[in-house]
Amino acid sequence: DPDKGPNILAFDEKDPIRIQITDNTLNIILRCGFEQKGETAVPTQIITVPLHFKVEGDKIHITRGDVKSSPVVKPERIAAQIARAGVVRNKMEKAFPDRVENSQVKAKLENRTVYLNITGIQTKDGWLTLTVGNDLTVEKNEEVPPAVEEKTAAK
Asked: What is the rounded CA–CA span in Å between residue 34 and residue 45?
């Protein structure tokens, strides 16, 4: 049952998390199994969670594509792997739902808070490119400490 719990991800020691950017998709690739209390563990799988991004106005729409799951070690019974893959897909779909985020990002730079507005997201040739609008908002915070060279030395 995919809703039974608690569920624990058991990440593989070799290459447990990888990000791959291709064809307008950011793929999160996990090498992990699942441990369920009182249930048979799901052996290590290679799980691919594709995410697509679209900026519309002041919102970023993040849409999950079809989750894929394949075993690291070929199972003795294919039927068991088909069932495992279904459980894994269900869990990952719940962990990575489609969502909408604000396109404004807050960053701290020395003694200032800067609000950046993301106006575009593009994936190409293995790169994720964020386009930031020129409508920058800056708030001044507490004073920043003096630079090291400005401090006086005691004699």
From this structure: 9
Model confidence over 25-38: pLDDT tens digits? 999 999 999 887 77
Give the mean model confidence (pLDDT) for residues 43-50. 95
DSSP string, 9-34: EEE-SSS-EEEEEETTEEEEEEEEEE
Number of domains in the chain: 1
Residue 41 maps to a domain: yes
Name the amino acid, one letter, at 97.
P
What does residue 62 show for φ and ψ, rounded to 5 degrees? -115, 115
In a domain, 115, yes or no: no
Domain span at residue 37?
7-52+65-100
What is the value of pTM for the model shown? 0.77
Assigned domain for 96 exists: yes
Question: What are the b/e assignments for 112-149, b being 16+ CB within 10 Å?
Answer: eeeebbbeebebeeeeeeeeeeeeeeeeeeeeeeeeee
